[in-house]
């Protein structure tokens, strides 16, 4: 019997991609139409944005823990959050969580290390890129984390929050992401983290100047492995 996955969601597009990936990856491993049991909870994303704008990480943590409690009550055995930005509050969440978690940045860092990357660029919201979420996870594996310029952070963040999270995918915005990634490549990066769970909807290995580390799908696949208890102890 597989474990029950609980998804602590924030934004709709990223959470939907994570959920779909869990289901399709489950089918690949278990057979047609089969996947682990999955439950998902999300408050209004606006509640998270208010906390992020106010630098209120405790408020973010409280929202995450509220979802975690609901999912635990629904029977979830462990939890994931397909939103990189709110992992800034993870240190406030983990000690009080009713269930264990997979940490998205640690999952991505493990993949980066397994693939031999040494200098990784980071894309995501300004909140995320300015935080220690990925630098800490990557440095724990001896990998450098490179941030885009301030102006690139601003525009990438605007595209994410004004367009991607509401399902708007504009060609000029795709081109801007591509230029940002090209600049990271020119700065010596050997891969790029797609550190917002919506970015994989517009950027892939096929249109990126660097190999991509797709945080959404990597987390979903790690969750399926944990649920099926594949590879012994999954990434924590």
Description:
The protein has 236 residues and is α/β, with parallel strands linked by helices. The chain folds into 2 domains: 5-103 and 217-228, 3-Layer(aba) Sandwich (Rossmann fold), CATH 3.40.50.1860; 105-215, Rossmann fold (3-Layer(aba) Sandwich), CATH 3.40.50.1860. Helices cover 48% and strands 11% of the residues. The strands form 2 sheets. The chain has a 4-stranded parallel β-sheet with strand order 5-4-6-7, with helices on both faces. The protein has a 3-stranded parallel β-sheet with strand order 2-1-3, with helices on both faces. The radius of gyration is 17 Å and the shape is globular.
Q: What is the CA–CA distance across the termini?
A: 21 Å
Annotated CATH architecture of the largest domain: 3-Layer(aba) Sandwich
- The count of helical stretches stands at 10
H-E order: EHEHHEHHEHHEHHEEH
Q: Helix/strand-derived class? A: alpha/beta
Estimated radius of gyration: 17 Å
Enumerate the spans where pLDDT stays under 50 for 5 or more consecutive residues.
none
Tell me the strand percentage band.
5-15%
Global geometry: globular
Average pLDDT: 95
The CATH topology of the largest domain is given as Rossmann fold
Strand order within the widest sheet? Answer: 5-4-6-7
Record field, number of beta strands: 7
Largest sheet: 4 strands, parallel
Tell me the number of structural domains. Answer: 2
Helix content: 40-55%
């Amino acid at each position: 019997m597989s474990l029950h996955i609980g998804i602590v969601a924030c934004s709709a597009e990223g959470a939907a991609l994570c959920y779909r990936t869990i289901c399709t990856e489950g089918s690949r491993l278990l057979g047609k139409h089969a996947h682990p049991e999955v439950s998902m909870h999300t408050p209004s994303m606006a509640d998270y944005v208010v906390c992020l704008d106010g630098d209120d990480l405790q408020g973010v943590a409280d929202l995450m823990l509220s979802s975690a409690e609901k999912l635990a009550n629904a029977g979830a055995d462990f939890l994931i959050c397909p939103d990189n930005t709110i992992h800034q509050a993870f240190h406030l969440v983990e000690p009080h969580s009713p269930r264990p978690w997979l940490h998205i940045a640690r999952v991505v860092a493990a993949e980066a290390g397994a693939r031999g990357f040494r200098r990784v660029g980071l894309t995501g919201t300004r909140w995320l890129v300015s935080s220690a979420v990925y630098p800490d996870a990557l440095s724990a594996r001896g990998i450098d984390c490179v941030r885009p310029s301030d102006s690139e952070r601003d525009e990438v963040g605007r595209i994410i929050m004004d367009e991607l999270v509401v399902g708007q995918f504009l060609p000029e915005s795709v081109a801007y992401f591509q230029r940002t990634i090209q600049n990271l490549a020119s700065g010596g990066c050997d891969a790029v983290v797609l550190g917002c769970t919506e970015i994989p909807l517009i950027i892939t290995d096929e249109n990126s100047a660097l190999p991509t580390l797709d945080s959404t799908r990597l987390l979903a696949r790690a969750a399926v492995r944990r649920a099926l208890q594949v590879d012994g102890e999954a990434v924590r």
